[in-house]
Amino acid sequence: MNIELIEDNPYLLLTPGPLSTSKRVKAAMLKDWCTWDDDYNRIVQDIRARLVQLATKETSLYSSVLMQGSGSFCVEAVVGSVIPQNGKILVMANGAYGQRMAHMAKMLNIPLVLLDNGEVAPPDLNQLESMLQEDAEITHVAIVHCETTTGMLNPIEAVGRMAKKYNKTYIVDAMSSFGGIPMDITDLQIDYLISSANKCIQGVPGFGFVIAKIDELTKCAGWARSHSLDLFDQWDKMEHYNGKWRFTSPTHVVRAFYEALKELADEGGVIARFNRYKTSQRALVKGMKILGFETLLPEQLQSPIITSFLYPESEAFQFQTLYEKLKRRGFVIYPGKITNANTFRIGNIGEVQVDDMIRLVDTIQQEKFWT
Ligand SMILES: *Cc1c(COP(=O)(O)O)cnc(C)c1O
C-alpha cells in the first residue's frame, strides 16, 4: 500500500511508550496473519534471532522469548518463573518501576529484600554489597536500567559485577533503554533482560520480550507461579515448535515489530538511534533551560530517553494548562511520577527528531502563559 495515504497523527507522543511510530510500522498491521502458519512463525523466529543479535555478540549463549501483554507482564513472567521455591530476590528500586517489580515479588510470595535509595539518588553499591554479604539466602538481584519515573540511568554494569561477585542471577528491566542505548548483555553479565515492543524498538504495544541466558532459563522448568506467564514454557514452545506462541499471539503487533526492527537496522542500528536520542534530549534540555526550566536530575544521572523538569517557581504555572495547550499544537507530554517534587516529563524516543524538540521548545516559549 502507499503509506503516504496514512493520515498524519494529530500530535506527536512525547511519552515513552506507547510512542510515535512511523507510517511504515503502522502499515505493517494492515494484513491479517494466521497465528500458527509457517509464514508467520518464520517472522517470529527471525524476530527472536534479531533480538539476541541486538543484545550481544555471544549469540549462542542467549535466547529470546516473546510474551503477550504489556512490558509489566514480562517483568512478572520473569519474577514469577526464574526464582526457585527456596530463592530470594533483592530488588534495587529507585523509582516506580523498581517498586513495581518488588510489588510483584510480594504478591507472588517470593521472599524479597528491597534496596531503596529514594527516587533521585542512584543505587548505593556499598549498601548492595553489605546486603549480599549479610544475607546468603539472596539468589537473584534485579534492577531497572533506565528508571522511566525520573529518567535516571542506573549503573547496570557495576551492579552486574557485584551480583556476579556473589554468584547471583542478574535480572535487568531494560524496558525503556534496550534498542536505544548500546549494550552487550554478555559484558554486563545479565541473565535476564526484559523489554517491550513499544519502547526504543519503536513498535506498537501488545507484547514484551525477555532475552535470557540459555543455561539459566533451562533450569526453570516447573518453577513458574503462573500458567499464562510461565516464561520457561513459553520459551520451550517457541524453541521447539519453530516460533509458535502457546496462546493467541498479537499477530498484527508482531508484524509491526518486525518492521520496526528492520527500520532500526535501516537507521544504522542501536548506535545511530542512541545518537539521535542523545541529540534530541540535549537540544530539549538546552532549550528548556533557556526558558528557565530546571531538570530534576543532574546531567551525569540523566538518560537520553526521558527528562523530568521541575515546575517553574511561578504560582501561575499549571501543568494541565501547559498540557492542553501543547496538545492543541501537536505535542503530548507526560505528567511527573515522583512524590517529593512537582515535575513533568518529556520523552524523546519514537519517531521524533531533533527538529521536533526545537519546535516544542519554541511552542512552549510562545505559550509561556505563566510569566
Ligand atoms: C514502560 C516500562 C515498563 C512496563 O510498563 P507497561 O506499562 O507494563 O508496558 C516497565 N519498566 C520500565 C522501566 C518502563 O519504562
UniProtKB/TrEMBL annotation:
Source species, please?
Answer: Paenibacillus ferrarius
Name any one Pfam family assigned in the record: Aminotran_5
The reactions it catalyses are:
(2-aminoethyl)phosphonate + pyruvate = phosphonoacetaldehyde + L-alanine
Give the EC number(s) listed in the UniProt record. 2.6.1.37
The cross-references to NCBIfam families, in alphabetical order and at most eight, read: PhnW-AepZ, PRK13479.1, transamin_PhnW
Name of the featured protein: 2-aminoethylphosphonate--pyruvate transaminase
Query: If you read the UniProt record, what top EC class would you report for this enzyme, in one word?
Result: transferase
Family listed: Belongs to the class-V pyridoxal-phosphate-dependent aminotransferase family. PhnW subfamily.
Q: Name one GO biological process term.
A: organic phosphonate catabolic process
**Which HAMAP family does this one have?**
PhnW_aminotrans_5 (MF_01376)
Gene Ontology MF terms in the entry: 2-aminoethylphosphonate-pyruvate transaminase activity
Q: What is the required cofactor set for this protein?
A: pyridoxal 5'-phosphate
Task: Spell out which residues are annotated as carrying N6-(pyridoxal phosphate)lysine.
Answer: K199
Provide this UniProt record's keywords sorted from A to Z: Aminotransferase, Pyridoxal phosphate, Pyruvate, Transferase
Its biological purpose: Involved in phosphonate degradation.
| Residues reported to bind substrate | R345
Subunit and partners: Homodimer.
Concerning InterPro entries, the annotation shows: Aminotrans_V_dom, NH2EtPonate_pyrv_transaminase, PyrdxlP-dep_Trfase, PyrdxlP-dep_Trfase_major, PyrdxlP-dep_Trfase_small, SP_NH2Trfase/AEP_transaminase
Domain Aminotransferase class V, residue spans: 64-316
Instruction: State the encoding gene.
Output: phnW
